[in-house]
Design brief:
19 strands, alpha+beta, Uridine Diphospho-n-acetylenolpyruvylglucosamine Reductase, domain 2, Uridine Diphospho-n-acetylenolpyruvylglucosamine Reductase, domain 1, Uridine Diphospho-n-acetylenolpyruvylglucosamine Reductase, domain 3, five-stranded antiparallel sheet, binds flavin-adenine dinucleotide, globular, about 300 residues, four-stranded mixed sheet
Length: about 300
């Protein structure tokens, strides 16, 4: 496996923003992953796990250490009639369409989520009233503390709204077993298509973005609604702008920097705080060098 130096990361995120990784690699399997982790451990250098980069804001100032991108690990196996195991780098739209073709129901919600299985487990990704916690039976991880492969049950993953017990610095998802339900392939395909069409109508799919920016602060108050009501649509900072289609989406109009984006997030947060007295917390993760002032957005 090649380990590249000073590798530009913008191309590995759906926002198309990010400076260079000091070192960068893409393991093809668990052994290559463990080998690179061992190297980092021996050199006492930091490492970071990246999936599809569809929920991670990467600093334009770059990332010290080694960025390990999981998207080459994409094996999918059918273990039982209704049980599929997918490696961490498998893309959600791919596995959703695969399940639909097998007449397996449960992943219809995931067709428009451009992340990987690993990122989706960590984030408990969800949409259309469903989420990963409903179908994950167990997850195989590489555990850094014990340096062993472990299997974690659904219960051990302690899934919450857009969160799970997995800390990517402590456990790396290698694969997940997904328990689904047998149903009519036609019905599943129709629902999958319906969900995909909905995305195209309501989200800025063609412009680089990272999905929903902020978590919903209350179950009955969506961040998008609050931002829209507050007049956030089309706010702009450099080349980063609030989407005109969906107020909880920030888009890169071309050449935006992470500084532009964080500046915009600050203003969006302040706006909702002023108008609705509610604090919005970002859904996105960060990777790389951010100033303490920039970090306050995630507090
Ligand atoms: C257009 C668009 C629409 C979206 N719609 C939705 C939606 O409807 N619902 C939703 O929930 N999200 C949505 N998202 C956000 C995003 O796609 C999900 O959160 C997705 O699950 C992130 O997966 P990823 O592989 O891209 O994660 P990344 O952004 O690469 O990583 C996210 C976190 O997971 C960690 N991680 C990734 N892989 C592993 C692994 N193998 N082991 C351990 N840690 C890992 C990373 O270190 C990071 O902390 C959308 C994004 C976009 C761009």
């Amino acid at each position: 496996m090649e380990i590249a130096d000073n590798s530009p990361l913008w191309r590995y995120t759906t926002m198309k923003v990010g400076g260079d990784a000091e070192h960068f690699c893409q393991p093809a399997g668990a052994q290559e992953l463990v080998d690179v982790l061992d190297l980092c451990r021996k050199q006492r250098k930091p490492w970071h796990i990246l999936g599809g980069g569809s929920n991670t804001l990467i600093s334009s100032a770059g990332v010290p250490g080694t960025v390990i991108r999981m998207t080459q690990m994409t094996n999918v196996q059918t273990l039982e009639e209704d049980l599929v195991e997918a490696e961490a780098g498998t893309r959600l739209p791919h596995i959703a369409k695969h399940a639909a073709s097998l007449g397996l129901s449960g992943l219809e919600f995931a067709v428009g989520i451009p992340g990987t299985i690993g990122g989706a487990v960590v984030m408990n990704a969800g949409a259309h009233g469903s989420c990963m916690s409903e179908i994950v039976e167990s997850v195989t991880v590489f555990d850094i503390e014990t340096w062993q492969i472990r299997v974690l049950s659904n219960k051990e993953l302690s899934f919450e709204y857009r969160n799970s017990a997995i800390d990517p610095q402590k456990q790396i998802v290698l694969s997940a077993k997904l328990r689904m339900k047998k149903d009519s392939a036609e019905k599943i395909k129709a629902q999958t298509q319906h969900n995909e069409d909905y995305r195209w109508r309501t989200q800025p799919i063609g412009t680089p973005n990272l999905g929903s920016t902020f978590k919903n602060p209350l179950p009955d108050k969506s961040a998008g609604f609050l931002l829209d009501q507050s007049g956030a649509k089309e706010m702009q900072e450099g080349q980063a702008a609030v989407s005109a289609l969906h107020a909880n989406f920030v888009v890169n109009l071309g050449g935006a920097t992470s500084q532009n984006i964080v500046g915009l997030l600050h203003r969006m947060q302040n706006l909702v705080q002023e108008k609705h007295a509610l604090h919005l917390h970002p859904e996105w993760k960060t990777l790389g060098l951010f100033t303490p002032e920039e970090h306050t957005v995630w507090k």
